[in-house]
Amino acid sequence: MDLRGVPNDMIQAFSGVACVLIGPLIQYLYNFLAHRKIPFGPIARIAVAFFFCGGAMAYAAGVQDLIYASGPCYDRPRACPASENGKLPNDINVWVQIPLYFILAVGEIFGFVTASEYAYSKAPPNMKTIVQAFVQLTACAGSALGMALSPVAKDPDLLVMYACLAGVMILSAALFYWKFSKYDKVDEELNQMNVQDEDDRASREDNSRC
Description:
Layout (H helix, E strand, L loop, with lengths): L7 H5 L1 H22 L6 H27 L29 H25 L5 H22 L8 H23 L1 H4 L1 H23 L1
C-alpha cells in the first residue's frame, strides 16, 4: 500500500486512538439502553463483539481485494518487475485501513472488556484472581492462533484468509449467543448470589477475629 509519506507505525497507533474515542460513546449507549430498560446483557455484548470482529475481517478482505485489483503488481505486491525491486507498492492509499481499527475497537470494548468484567463479577470471592488469569490466557490463545495462521498469511492468499476469518467470527457470534444467551436472563440473580457469598465471607472473617 502507498503510505504517501505517512510512517507505518502511525497507522497502527489508530487502534489505541479508536478505543479512546469510541469508549465514551459505548458507555453512552449502555446508559441510553438502561434508561429505557432495553436489555443488553453481557452475553449479548460479547456476541455483538464477535459480529464486529467478523465485520472487521470482512472489511479487511474488501481492502485486500482492492489491493489485488490495483497495479502495478496486483495480487503479488512488490513482487513483480514493475515494482522496481520491491520499492513501488500497489497504488492504493494506506488510509483505507483506518475504518478497520475503529470496527475492531468497538469489538474489543464490547467483547474483551465485558468478558473481564463478567469473569470478575461472577467468580467466587476467593477465585477472582485465578479466573481473571484464565481470561487473560485467552489473549495468549489468540496470539497462538495468529502464529498458526502465519503460514497462509501471504500473497495471494490473504483475501481468502480474511474472508474465512470473517465467516468463522460471524458463525461464532451466532453459536455463542444461541448457547449462552440464557445467562443474560439470570444475570441479576447471579450478581445477587455473588454479593451474598461476599457478605457471608466477610461475616466469617469478622467472627474469626472475635
